[in-house]
Amino acid sequence: MLVLSDDFADQDLIGHADYCDGLVELIRSVDSRGSFTIGIYGQWGSGKTSMLKQIKKALGVPESEDAQPVLTVWFNPWQFVADEHLIIPFFHTLIASLEKIVKEQKTEKIAKKLPDFIKKIAHVPLALIYGLEGELKIPLLLKTKFAFAKAMDYQQNAEAAIDEESAIENETAMQNAAGDYESTYYNLLQILQDAAADLDMKIVVFIDDLDRCLPEKAVQLLEGLKVLLDLRNFVFVMGVAQEVIERGIRVRYKELYLAGPQDDLPNIEGQYLDKIIQFPFSLPAADTDELKKNILTRQLKNLEGAEPFVELIHEVLGSNPRTIKRFINTISFSLNLAGKKSEKENAFHPELLIKASLIGYLFPSLYRQLEIYPSHLVRLEKIVMETEKERKKNKSKQEFVEGQSHQVKKTDLPIIDQWLEDDKISKLLLILKIRDHQIGFKDQETVIKYVCLLTTSIRSEVTSKAKDTRISNKPLPEEMRDRMVEIPAGKFIMGDNESGQVEVTISRSFMMDKYPVTQALYQKVMNNNPSSFKGEDRPVENVSWFDAIEFCNELSKRIGLHEVYEVNGKKVKRRPEANGYRLPTEAEWEYACRANTTGDHYGNLDEIAWYDKNSGDQTQGVGQKKANDFGLYDMLGNVWEWCNDWYGDYPTNPVTDSTGAEDGSYRVLRGGSWRYEPGYVRSADRGRNTPGYRDGTLGFRLLLPPGQ
Fold this sequence. Notes:
- The chain is α/β, with parallel strands linked by helices.
- The chain is built from 28 helices and 17 strands.
- The strands form 5 sheets. Strands 2-3-4-1-5 form a 5-stranded parallel β-sheet, sandwiched between helices. A 4-stranded mixed β-sheet has the order 15-14-12-16, with helices on one face.
- A hairpin with a 2-residue loop joins strand 10 (565-568) and strand 11.
- Mean pLDDT is 81; it is low at 134-174, 400-405 and 456-469.
């Protein structure tokens, strides 16, 4: 079976060689008083890592014997995501890489000058740990033991590590060490400038996967490098998705956004990036011919019956190398399995398997629908055939392309017609258009053979449970009745030692949505879908707090309930007597999430939540993980959920039906999201943001008073 790894390519396969050569020449030509930073921007899977590796490889070959030595260092901050300050592991990596170069003794100049530079900066990481941990702000003796032991452990220097008992015996020595690190910490800039003064060699630092870190941590690292290593002969080359850095800048300078309407603000993100990155380079899309030749054609010829479909796969999936590799792995597995089954059953057609795989890859919600109702694919293909026949009849030479409006006859069956809208039909037309040998999904048995080939019993169970709630074609009042579950009254301890704790009584039961509001439901009510990660059964995201309450009011109005929120510009008043949908209070949310449990989670995190380790860097369809004991899905992970409350300190005394702070600048967010690490994906963790802020991690869930 053919399996492609997601590793970088050490030679160009997608037509980027000329750009690589140009960037190498640029780096060799840099001669500035301070550091020089190149930002290589590109989306997920577009080839940023491969580009960085190819540049690094080219720089490893000396331009000439007399040329200035170019030393390369590779730093992947993703490996240190648990560290509070990324600048510390960065310095460790820099020193370790330079020490390795010295051992290799590439030239006499390196062997002579580099060790002196390393010696001068060797204590910088420990001094940073000492200073950034705040040890200088309190009496040295009280905290020196902890800080110094932690520093030694961080260095992974077992011989120098000092346990607590020996620390007590050597208090004087440790105080002296603390004084040394204090001195180094306060003189870092001068020490680094002196060390680099006569280095006379270029150090090129490659920073990859910065966009996989939390945006605020990415910005923190950029600022640390700009402050500490703005030194001559240093060049930084970063591979990053630009929007990640921009989100981090918005968090870093949130006070400016709070000051007034965003339309009136200067281009903060642009100005910031201009100061940090001297040469921005947007990675071009892969060259179509090179990508087809070096990846698609080369790999598909190893899969029986797949090679003729290079054009179809490329048309549907586009030119993202990672997306294409992952799909090749998918069809490799499918073809292998189908080949084994065909030995026992009738022969199969690779084209139909590839088409079914493309539908499953691009439209997972449709694929789940077809698992339940195979005849729907027969209906869809018939519509495509009729549309193609009509196009040829009119002698139109217009091709079906993404984003193009198409005149397609509808069936008046919403569950099918939802896939014939403009934002989906172009891809489906490409996939299902009948090819030369007229093979198609002509009957239900054919669909079952191919679409259901890879369906597991677990997947079927999840699908059957969710088919009436995640994507529903019932009337809106009936759909909402099916979605809501009753949460009983009760008492619990809200918060934890980190955020504070308070005893809260929930005096009345209430109804809560099993799921975060899905894109299908949002589209049905608001007639739009702002989400970044499209999928009908995925949670809607990219919604502000104001968007969420507007949805609550519109849904209430559509069902005939009284609207909860009275909105006057940015002033919002909640009507306590109204019987419509609203956002849960922070207390109601945590009480419903805990479901009578007391720990950080209501189960094994991987079984109940989509978070940074298992989400695939995107939202996932709701209801696929285990529910809590109240029957609520996705309370943790997937998307942060807006709460009704202003963000503020918890009360100091027990409270009944807490509604949070009376006013503030931020609204509460709960639950963590697909992009966050486990420390944020907890029942008690509190998030916050301004009520007008939108992001691909922010969604919401509905609450309804009982008896509605």
